[in-house]
Amino acid sequence: MKFQVLLIALVLIAIEANAAKQGKNATIPALIVFGDSIMDTGNNNNLPTLLKCNFPPYGKDFPGGSATGRFSDGRVPSDLIAEKLGLAKTLPAYMNPDLKPEDLLKGVTFASGGTGYDPLTAQMMSVISVWDQLIYFKEYISKIKKHFGEEKAKDILENSFFVVVSSSNDLAHTYLARALTYDRTSYPNFLADTAVQFVRELYKLGARRIGVFSAVPVGCVPLQRTVFGGLLTRGCNHLLNNMAKQFNSRLSPALDSLDKELDGVILYIDVYETLYDMIQYPKKYGFEVADRGCCGKGTLAISYLCNAFNPFTCTNSSAYIFWDTYHPTERAYQVIVDSLLDKYLKKLY
Ligand SMILES: *[C@@H]1O[C@H](CO)[C@@H](O)[C@H](O)[C@H]1NC(C)=O
Ligand SMILES: *[C@@H]1O[C@H](CO)[C@@H](O)[C@H](O)[C@H]1NC(C)=O
């Protein structure tokens, strides 16, 4: 008798725990993303910019092998985070003209490859600035209201996870055009302050769970190694990495105080350390190559230089951290996104 009671109790606890887990997972209705090529799933496809990649071999490891405009061999972090949150395997690009109203419900990405926090970055690259992404976000919310009602729009605003990822293009490219006005400290500081301002705007529009990615060790991407790393050594560009660290050291405490000041959850999400460690110790993570991209010869190929006519593209992209000379492979992204779960995503529930 005692044993039976115990057994029933255990079963009840198990059912409850399972329900709680599912319920928890279900409290985030959508993932809404802003930023650059790390998060873009095809928003640049119809823009008059050179920064696009909706042609092979981009997408060679994507379901169906299709080149969707993602800057990788497969899925990108917008997709992988949406999957982690139990929403969908891929996250649609808001600019995709084929989207139906229902496709908006689990969230979208407004991210545009080549953009940055500095408005000059998007202007130089003819892509969508993060501020214009906010304008599209307002349009998105009015579409949700129109098709699904005020309550649904409120649910999406209050409970979705909002992610912002930018700064690489500012640091690696726009800084060179800004060097008369800024130095290696004041420019990253300006970018971090702009990121904080962006979070405040997003909050004003109703977002309550916001995560901002740190800068990455952009000085270690294969292109930076080729151009600045020395002909034979091809080391990382440490000056650039130091600017990324400066950005992070300004952003992190600013977001922490924003988290205390505002309702909801504001997260600083560090991805610098994980990616840097992967690049230093690729074998530890099951990678073989860290200093070249898979596409082409992997030292210069990006965007239109990474194309189907380039005969040198590797066959097994899983062995590479970088897909082209700038962007990680899906498998490298997966390692990074997996590392976020315990540290950050759990804080959302
Ligand atoms: C949410 O559910 C998905 C699918 O069941 C799972 O893979 C993921 O780890 C869950 N996320 C969290 C934060 O528990
Ligand atoms: C691709 O590379 C990964 C990592 O080195 C390895 O685990 C996998 O077996 C390789 N796949 C093929 C088909 O060679």
UniProtKB/TrEMBL annotation:
InterPro entries linked to this entry: GDSL (IPR001087), GDSL_lipolytic_enzyme (IPR050592), Lipase_GDSL_AS (IPR008265), SGNH_hydro_sf (IPR036514), SGNH_plant_lipase-like (IPR035669)
- Fetch the PROSITE patterns from UniProt: LIPASE_GDSL_SER (PS01098)
Keyword annotations: Glycoprotein, Hydrolase, Lipid degradation, Lipid metabolism, Secreted, Signal
Among Pfam families, the record links this protein to: Lipase_GDSL
Task: Give a yes or no for keyword Cell cycle in this entry.
Answer: no
Asked if the record carries the keyword Ribonucleoprotein, the reply is no
Chief location: secreted
Residues of the signal peptide: 1-19
- Protein localization: Secreted
Q: Which domain of life is it from?
A: Eukaryota
Similarity remark: Belongs to the 'GDSL' lipolytic enzyme family.
Q: Know the name of this protein?
A: GDSL esterase/lipase At1g58725-like isoform X3
Instruction: Give the originating organism.
Output: Camelina sativa (False flax)
Q: What is the lineage of its organism?
A: Eukaryota, Viridiplantae, Streptophyta, Embryophyta, Tracheophyta
